[in-house]
Design a protein that fits this description.
There is one protein chain. By secondary structure, this protein is of the alpha+beta class. Helix content is 15%, strand content 24%. The protein has 2 domains: 35-46 and 211-343, Glycosidases (TIM Barrel, Alpha-Beta Barrel), CATH 3.20.20; 72-206, Galactose-binding domain-like (Jelly Rolls), CATH 2.60.120. The N and C termini lie far apart (72 Å).
Length: 350
């Protein structure tokens, strides 16, 4: 009885032939398959943005305006956050002060984002110093377990007590050592009263097509292999911001790295904004390298905490969006097109 009931429900299968004409039909948009990028789960900082140093400018998180995490002291050093009357910039006011025992190698150490991968390649980096020092700084990649130096370079100091000075270096490696590696920046203390301040400490591996302030080669190649037709940026929730004032602000992420304050993102960690509007749209790193159509998302006037800008208060934000579009597409005779020409390229987006 049960078997006969089941058989009565059985579906009959029949062959179907579909003929598709080569003529007629409608044109389909070529923008059917693409990518969306958002700074979430360290997809930018610590991800496709190739910077290897975590918290390079001693910035904060949702609870604190600045932090040393994950920096630690190297050698018999004392380190603390410092707020000098002469900061590196108004955007990056916090530095780390380092002092220690005379004649000893002292400094700071950083584990990167879950380690720093050591490969046979050339790394490029820089750091800023405030304070008078005569001697060499040493930058090294060291085994996190043994402290063994895997590769290092000495950089002659040209620092002084009157202004911040930038020191650039090239670090060559001929070994493969995996991720269990720390970055260290050290010097030999000359005086017990000597204090040096450091800020914006950066280290990059070779980037995709060797772009300055660029992107990881492996991840960019993986994206390119997907053959996308468009790239939507800069995300959704992280564009909105959690609370009033925390939205993604295009005009704060278009200049030199020393002038980018960063912000606490919607996903509970600090965004350096080293990967900003210029890197997304103008420096050739995203849409030009991937050969995709750029899709720019604009802020819609609401925050994740439920705050909504009333209609009579939207004029400022509408103008801000128009300025952003002019920055990208206006020629150099326009106010914001001229800013783009000065910062990135004289050629507007088409």
């Amino acid at each position: 009885m049960k078997l006969s009931s089941l058989l009565s429900l059985a579906t009959k299968v029949a062959a179907v032939t579909i003929s598709v004409s080569k003529d007629g039909g409608k044109d389909a948009s070529r923008l059917q398959y693409g990518l969306m990028f958002e700074e979430i789960n360290f997809s930018g900082d610590g991800g496709i943005y190739a910077e290897l140093i975590r918290n390079r400018a001693f910035q904060g998180d949702e609870f604190t305006p600045s932090t040393l995490d994950p920096w630690t002291a190297f050698g018999p050093a004392d380190i603390l956050l410092s707020y000098l009357t002469t900061p590196l910039s108004s955007a990056l006011p916090t530095s780390v002060a380092v002092k220690g025992k005379v004649g000893e190698e002292i400094g700071i150490s950083n584990p990167g984002y879950c380690g720093i991968d050591v490969l046979p390649q050339t790394y490029k980096g820089s750091f800023w110093v405030f304070g008078d020092y005569r001697g060499d700084f040493k930058v090294a990649l060291r085994s996190a377990s043994s402290g063994e130096i895997l590769t290092s370079v000495n950089i002659p100091s040209h620092s002084n007590t009157h202004a911040w000075t930038k020191h650039e270096f090239v670090l060559d490696s001929n070994i493969t050592a995996g991720y269990k590696t720390n970055f260290t920046l050290t010097f030999v203390a000359k005086s017990s009263r000597q204090v040096l301040n450091f800020n914006l400490i950066s280290l990059f591996p070779p980037t995709y097509n060797n772009r300055e302030n660029g992107l990881r080669r492996d991840l960019m190649q993986s994206l390119k292999d997907l053959n996308p037709s468009f790239m939507r940026i800069p995300g959704g929730n992280n564009l909105q911001g959690e609370v009033p004032g925390s939205r993604w602000k295009w005009n704060e992420i278009i200049g030199d790295l020393v002038d980018r304050p960063g912000r606490t993102g919607a996903w509970r960690y600090y965004n350096t904004d080293g990967l900003g509007l210029i890197e997304y749209m103008l420096s050739g790193q995203w849409y030009q390298e991937l050969e995709v159509e750029p899709v720019l998302i604009l802020w819609a006037g609401l925050y994740l905490d439920g705050t909504v800008i009333p209609e009579d208060g939207l004029d400022f934000y509408v103008q801000d969006a128009l300025h952003e579009v002019e920055f990208l597409t206006g020629d150099a005779s326009t106010e914001y097109g001229a800013k783009r020409a000065a910062l990135a390229t004289k050629h507007p987006l088409k």
